[in-house]
């Protein structure tokens, strides 16, 4: 009977370890969402910064907006956000994504209006940039920052959760091993009597 208990104990430790590993894998999946999200959002934010810089340089020089440079960076934003939107959202993130999509749509319309201005309309371009494009770029940047902070917070929380779970699992597994070793010693002593 004691040998059966020892064998069952070893099986229990193995089962417990496997179950805990599957829980750790769930935490890793959460990190697999947050870590890529941070990368995608950072790439989009960098492209928005480049768009803003290109617009500001053109307006300061009194030149037309650089359509090619802006289009390339806007494409970077689209390519960065497409896989980000495909990831499962954290609680509250969908609402923020809807706001970001709306701001980007407003920006694209305002950008189209800016490109539609006659090339010589420097005053109109400056006014449109000051009243529509720059405020939209600021709101888009703020929204990307909020989403970055949200995902970064989850990443930090998930990493801390992984550490806590690993420590707890180790303590329990070692404790179970200790109990089994004590049972084995007791069984050996009983058999030798």
- Give the DSSP E fraction (strand runs of 2 or more residues): under 5%
Helix content: over 70%
Gyration radius over CA: 29 Å
Summed over residues and divided by their number, the pLDDT gives a mean of 85
Please state the structural category.
mainly alpha
Low-pLDDT runs of 5+ residues are none
Shape: rod-shaped
* SSE topology string: HHHH
Account of the protein in words:
It contains four helices and no strands. The protein has 193 residues and is mainly α. The model has no long low-confidence stretch (mean pLDDT 85).
Helices and strands in order:
Elements (H helix, E strand, L loop, with lengths): L1 H60 L5 H20 L6 H24 L5 H71 L1
Characteristic terms for this protein:
193 residues; mainly alpha; 4 helices; 91% helix
Summarize the structure.
The chain is an all-alpha fold and 193 residues long.
